[in-house]
Amino acid sequence: MRSFSRIAGACLLALLLSHPAQAQKKAVPKLQVALLLDVSFTMEGLIEQAKTQLWSTARMLARSECEAGRPTVEIALYEYGRPSNGAAAGYVRQLSPFTSNLDALSDQLFRLRTDGGEEYCAEAIHAAVTELQWDPSPASYKAIFIAGNENFRQGRYPYATACAEAVAKGIVVNTIYCGYRAQAYNEFWDLGAECGGGSFTSINADEAEELPETPFDRQLITLNEKVNAGARRSGAFAMNAPTTIRGYSPGIQAERITTRSAMGTLAPPDTVEVRDINNPDALREYVVTERSPEYDPHDLEVQVNTHRRRQSGTPGSAAAAPKVRYRYSDKERAQLQRQIAALGVRRDAWLQAERKKRATTGTATLGSEMARLLKQQAGARGFRFR
Question: Which of 166, 237, 314, 368 is the most buried (most CB within 10 A)?
């Protein structure tokens, strides 16, 4: 019997070694998109389109699938054409590295203002290619979308070199000209996409897209507030998940909520706000230091550092900081998330029908062209969009 067991074990080991792909789970590829925006004086419309259309684009990506499962979605953001970014940097600045935290990304977008400057597209592409953490897997979809106007060949860095650097890493370069297509050819925007293995298109950056309030927006906001209130108070402190969406229109808030739901980021946060009950004005932001499994996998242990105020940003002494635990009701949270997901689908259907009613010219915008090219290019790599 022992001999039989040894032989069976050896056979099983040999089988696993001969089929390593079956012995380990297949890695799920990523969808990585870097958005490079021209922030010169004439680009107010482009920035406004990015603010209102980012969430629907991200939601489309979040609902994608591939053979290995549900891909991770990461978006990065750059600005170029701002004088204060400095000539040495090609007037380019990274606003956000690759992240799935679209709240922080959107906050960066809403702070953007236009400025006068030189628009060096090649410098912006080079910075995105060399600074970002691109996934090395050939199964992942990696793309740069650069939007702006003026001459694509401006600057000292050769555009052909920047595009070749992208192609070497398996990154597709797509160029989006803000203006008339005929003028885009005169400004050489087609060349960037040609040598970068991507697509060239043009948009009307001044086409303002209003995001109408839907019958579901306020319900979604109420449900989201219940999710954020899912932590119980402990001791002298109360905790709330960050609610950075306040201050925006109901439509924008609902866009953010439904996108976070699609991306699965309505979970217990890694950053929380802690309010001292005895000192209501002392609102501070802290990082979750431990998820206390000895009590419950869904408990959070928060390092409450009373010297680290959000207003000043001054770090305090971690050694002297007390710890407070909070618990999320997993069953209640899951029920709320299901309700948000269902309302999100109904809201998308309502918006799609409303846009068809309002559509007159079918003008191309940043969001519509990015969605079209993403579906086309990622779809050719085996990604499916629901």
Answer: 166
Residue 283 vs residue 84, higher pLDDT: 84
Amino acid residing at 337: Q
pLDDT, tens digit, 9 for 90 and up, residues 177-209: 999 999 999 999 999 888 889 999 999 988 876
Residues 64 and 190 in one domain: yes
Report which residue type is found at 24.
Answer: Q
Given a cut of 60, whether residue 328 has pLDDT beyond it is: no
pLDDT band at 17 (very low <50, low <70, confident <90, very high): low
| 201 and 259 co-located in one domain | no
Same domain, 183 and 290: no
Q: Which residue has the higher pLDDT, 115 or 371?
A: 371
Same-domain pairing of 203 and 110:
yes
170 domain residue, yes or no: yes
Structure tokens at 222: 């109420």
Mean pLDDT score, 151-155: 94
Q: For residues 258 and 120, state if they share a domain.
A: no
